[in-house]
Specification:
Layout: E1 2-7, E2 10-19, E3 23-28, E4 34-38, E5 42-44
Antiparallel strand pairs: 1-2, 1-5, 2-3, 3-4
Length: 70
């Protein structure tokens, strides 16, 4: 788990999904969005910020192929 920054004043908790030499793709723990940040904008999350547990959980609805509006 890391803290990622879109700017130097906006930090968000995230889980690393993938990385390249230039960027890291993270799923934000508290809202579920996925974003890519430059490697220099990702930092190890201090233990004190591990709590509270993530607010977002990865899930999906099981929708029938014919849809729900019939």
């Amino acid at each position: 788990i890391i803290e990622a920054s879109r700017s130097l004043s906006d930090f968000l908790r995230g889980e690393v999904l993938s990385s390249t030499r230039e960027s890291i793709t993270v799923r934000l723990l508290d809202d579920g969005y996925t974003m890519s940040v430059p490697v220099g904008h990702a930092y190890a999350l201090p233990a004190a910020l591990m709590d509270p547990r993530p607010f977002a959980i990865h899930c999906a609805l099981d929708v029938p192929e014919e849809g729900i509006m019939e």
